[in-house]
Design brief:
By secondary structure, the chain is of the alpha/beta class. The protein has a domain of about 170 residues: Rossmann fold (3-Layer(aba) Sandwich), CATH 3.40.50.300. It is built from 9 helices and 12 strands. The protein has a 6-stranded mixed beta sheet with strand order 6-7-8-3-9-10, with helices on both faces. The protein has a 4-stranded antiparallel beta sheet with strand order 2-1-4-5. The protein has a two-stranded antiparallel ribbon with strand order 11-12. α6 links the parallel β7 and β8. The N terminus is likely disordered.
Length: about 270
């Protein structure tokens, strides 16, 4: 039976490097973010390579969303450095706006705004936007072009969020908790869409707390625990670090539970 805690010497997943992919397009070094006396991201470092689907995995409150908001230039770090496509994420935010597409967890549009209107509006923010009609077709929303936002299903709203993140022809897409609240069929449709985004040449930074989603989609995973980096590896590497659990072959959920288990110091 496997019972490693987060600081246990019995569980040491190796840090899988990104050299098997392309060059690094995101470099995070010593990222720290505080809100008052509370440190929510504590010295996190990792790189994301061109062509990866790179996942950030963690429990609620682990610092996942704050990390990607700093990468997107939406929050200022209190320490560390972030480079995206060779640019400083905060200082060069305006230059990065057309290179990085962002879909955040709490994204909402006005209820009466129609799908086509939303895409045309967002396209007007960029000097060289994608063809919004082609993008609409690629996310399977052509028939909803005149549908008000409030009338869309949960899955359709998520597809629209992805389309809005891609309207500026970005090289990097940051997607936060895309499938929360969706039924299994809608989740699978979003997974297919994420793979299609990567196939178009877009590097994907994906935040999730779903184990099956992380295992099926992500090339590598950064696991955050209490704001710190607990592991950085491929899904297979994380699983291999656990071994068998109660006589059964471990899965990613077992690896995650091992990493996030409370410490019991004697």
């Amino acid at each position: 039976m496997c019972t490693p805690a987060r600081q246990s010497a019995s569980y040491r997943p190796w840090r899988a490097e990104s050299s098997v992919f392309g060059m690094a397009v995101i470099e995070v070094s010593g990222l720290t973010k505080r809100y008052g006396d509370r440190t929510v991201v504590n010295g996190v470092s990792f790189t994301v390579a061109e062509g990866e689907i790179f996942g950030i995995l963690g429990e609620n409150g682990a610092g996942k969303t704050t990390t990607v908001e700093c990468i997107a230039g939406l929050r200022s770090p209190d320490g560390g450095a972030i480079s995206v496509l060779g640019l400083d994420a905060r200082r060069d935010h305006e230059r990065l706006r057309g290179l990085v597409g962002v879909q955040l967890q709490e994204s909402q549009l006005q209820d009466r705004l129609r799908v086509g209107e939303a895409l045309q509006l967002y396209a007007s923010f960029y000097p060289d936007p994608a063809d919004w009609r082609e993008l609409l077709a690629s996310v399977g929303l052509t028939e909803q072009v005149n549908t008000p936002y409030a009338k869309l299903s949960g899955g359709q709203k998520q597809r629209l969020s992805i389309a809005l993140a891609l309207i500026g022809n970005p090289r990097v897409a940051i997607l936060d908790e895309l499938t929360t609240g969706l039924d299994p069929r809608a989740r699978r449709e979003i997974w297919k869409l994420i793979r299609a985004i990567r196939d178009r040449g877009v590097t994907v930074l994906l935040v999730t707390h779903f184990m099956d989603e992380a295992e099926r989609l992500c090339d590598r995973l950064a696991v955050l625990v209490d704001g710190g980096l607990a592991a950085l590896d491929t899904p297979a590497g994380l699983i291999a670090g656990v071994g068998d659990v109660d006589g059964y072959r471990a899965n990613l959920e077992d690896a995650f539970l091992a990493l996030t288990a409370p410490s019991h110091d004697s």
